[in-house]
TrEMBL record:
This is Pol polyprotein. One of its GO terms (molecular function) is nucleic acid binding. The keyword Ligase does not apply. Keywords: Multifunctional enzyme. Residues 1-65 form the Reverse transcriptase domain. It comes from the Eukaryota. InterPro entries: DNA/RNA_pol_sf (IPR043502), Integrase_H2C2 (IPR041588), Retrovirus_Pol_polyprotein (IPR050951), Rev_trsase/Diguanyl_cyclase (IPR043128), RNaseH-like_sf (IPR012337), RNaseH_sf (IPR036397), RT_dom (IPR000477), RT_RNaseH_2 (IPR041577). Signal peptide: none annotated. SUPFAM superfamilies: DNA/RNA polymerases, Ribonuclease H-like. GO terms for biological process: DNA metabolic process.
């Protein structure tokens, strides 16, 4: 569906749900006509009983979308605000998992959740419910009931990412300028590890920018934006020739792929990120998250399993897999039951279909794509095949942005004698000449005396002999 409607900027597709946003009723009619035309061209039919047209306010994926912005759905909020007091660690994790879905609406909530997150660290299934836990529990529900209104992103509006770091956490606010006022789009914060908390101020502030861009990559990639930080040395870190550690070079290089505009903002004016970074937040698992499985023809997959030679080989030698025939949708499918849920064994003809159904949702890298697929399906050579398919994905290659910063060159001490310091290199391949396609080059740094030796191969055992035989 996303591939069919990708050319329409008014459409937002999530699996088989289509959201069409327009700025006026007349424009909405034109957008609907364009969508209907593309659907008809591709022989797709919509269920009119499940469609809603011409609405100023709608509910979509657990959020209330209005002309002014987006907030949590009151019915979903009610389920959390009326959540009873947790009686064990699993119930508390369930509550935090539901709250996690709306964390981007709650600036500074991590500080209030600290007693609850500490309670989940116990190895015991029974939790000690203190007065601080009760206060945090009520404060979390109260904060969600009055959640911050987040403005709709505007591709034409000026965008900025404000970051800050403290001794224990990092935080960020993503905002855009609307009618001369900066309005929040989303918030981010996380706790530092024990190692990261010992970083220097420069490294912690750099980590805040690096982590925030990683978190908001889906929004920032390919979009001009500026980064605001209250640590002034970072404003010229991308252009400075100062020697950096490998970690700093790696993080600066990643940041430069998205922006080179890092600007200084005084601490008192960097309010929201500062509050988020001071909150000792702890990341929580999404206990209540949904499992997204692309629709497949189970009858055809079951039939193909019986014909596929690789599946037949697995039946004889499963290795670490625990195979069992499972009835899914009325059809018996060979599945791996070694994990918490059965994973169908995918025949060779179906691997590309499964890959495209999951990877095309947001075009992540090969590692997250592999994790998403392997959580639901399995087949021989899955990791290698997924990695190759991600590398061959046209959309990923077309949208990839390559920016590189100029790193400082290492310096050498001046030479003081002939052949005291030499440079060697292997160059090629070149067009064959008398059977040789490479050159082994040597240059004396003091006299600039050069030597080039033609060689046929780059085998490691031949190189030392070339060096000692050219003196």
């Amino acid at each position: 569906m996303d591939g069919i409607l990708h050319e329409l900027n008014c459409c937002f597709v999530y699996l088989d749900d289509i959201l069409i946003a327009s700025s006026s009723p007349k424009e909405h009619e034109a957008d609907l006509s364009s969508v209907f035309h593309l659907l008809a061209t591709n022989d797709l039919v919509i269920n009119t009983q499940k469609c809603i047209f011409g609405q100023a306010t709608i509910t979509f994926l657990g959020h209330k979308v209005t002309p002014n912005g987006i907030t949590p759905v009151p019915e979903k909020v009610k389920a959390i605000t009326e959540f009873p007091k947790p009686y064990d660690k699993r119930t508390l994790q369930h509550f935090l998992g539901m709250l996690n879905y709306y964390l981007r609406f709650l600036p500074g909530i991590a500080k209030r959740l600290a007693p609850l997150t500490e309670a989940t660290k116990s190895r015991s299934k029974v939790i000690t419910w203190t007065d601080d836990c009760q206060t945090a529990f009520e404060a979390a529900k109260s904060s969600l009931a009055s959640a911050t209104l987040l403005k709709h992103p505007d591709p034409k509006s000026e965008t900025r990412l404000s970051t800050d770091a403290s001794d224990s956490a990092i935080g960020a606010e993503l905002s855009q300028k609307h009618h001369g006022m900066w309005r929040p789009i989303a918030f981010f914060s996380r706790k530092l590890t024990s190692t990261q908390s010992r970083y220097s101020t420069f490294d912690r502030e750099l980590l805040a920018i690096y982590s925030a861009i990683q978190h908001f990559r889906f929004f920032l990639e390919g979009r001009p934006f500026s980064v605001l930080t209250d640590h002034k040395p970072l404003t010229y870190a991308l252009t400075s020739k100062t020697a950096r550690s490998p970690r700093q070079e790696r993080q600066l290089s990643y940041i430069a792929e998205f922006t080179t505009g890092i600007r200084y903002i005084s601490g008192p004016n960097n309010v929201v990120p500062d509050v988020l970074s001071r909150a000792p937040c702890t990341e929580q698992p999404m206990v209540a998250s949904a499992s997204l499985i692309p629709p497949i023809n189970l009858a055809r997959m079951a039939a193909e399993q019986l014909r596929d030679p690789k599946v037949a080989e697995l039946r004889k030698q499963a290795g670490a897999l625990k195979l069992k025939e499972i009835n899914l949708g009325g059809y018996n499918l060979l599945c791996d039951v070694s994990t918490s849920r059965p994973r169908p064994i995918v025949p060779s003809l179906w691997t590309k279909t499964i890959f495209e159904a999951i990877h095309n949702l947001s075009h992540p890298g090969h590692k997250p794509t592999t994790r998403a697929i392997s959580a639901r399906y399995v087949w021989p050579g899955l990791k290698r095949e997924v990695k190759n398919m991600v590398r061959a994905c046209h959309s990923c290659q077309a949208s990839k942005i390559g920016r590189h910063i100029k790193t400082a060159l290492n310096s050498f001490d001046p030479p003081d004698r002939r052949f005291g310091d030499i440079h060697v290199d292997l160059v090629g391949p070149f067009p064959p000449s008398e059977g040789c396609t490479y050159l082994f080059t040597i240059i004396d740094r003091f006299t600039r005396w050069p030597k080039a030796v033609p060689i046929k191969t780059l085998r490691q055992q031949h190189v030392p002999g070339l060096y000692f035989g050219t003196g």
